[in-house]
């Protein structure tokens, strides 16, 4: 499974502005929360990278490490006011603007519409963290990274 969009890896782009957002889901029961963290390019709206984990600073650091390992160095970040963003990014590189994140919120709706186990009231849910991440990751790879192939 690819965690970073191959069309962005190791290709330096001028003025790369990324939007970062996280989305809640669960495995087994609602107390076992899993968060999808992802970033998209602000100008094109393309998803750049994603990862799964808890809603902690460590998960955001992991996402930043994925970007760094792929040679992606953003000039600016657009985020909400979550503490992981405030602590993990310098004030000069980060802009807090919830309105700018609407495109990622729309992608959340696409995932919730297409993947039944992500809807809020459902009898279909993942029992395994690995299966949960694999299903969502495969969908992101095909829908957002795949050469305009739609599911």
How would you sum up this structure, described in words?
The chain is α/β, with parallel strands linked by helices and 151 residues long. The two termini are 17 Å apart. It has a 5-stranded mixed sheet with strand order 3-2-1-4-5, with helices on both faces. It is globular and about 45 Å long. Helix 2 (83-88) links the parallel strand 4 and strand 5. It has 4 helices and 5 strands, in the order βββαβαβαα. It has one domain: Nucleotidyltransferase, domain 5 (2-Layer Sandwich).
CATH topology: Nucleotidyltransferase, domain 5
**What is the end-to-end distance?**
17 Å
What kind of sheet is the major sheet? 5 strands, mixed
- Mean pLDDT over the full residue set: 86
CATH C-level class is Alpha Beta
Main features:
151 residues; 4 helices; 32% helix; Nucleotidyltransferase, domain 5; globular; five-stranded mixed β-sheet
Give a concise summary.
The protein is an alpha/beta fold. The protein has helices spanning 57-69, 83-88, 102-114, 129-145, and strands at 17-27, 29-41, 47-53, 76-79, 94-96.
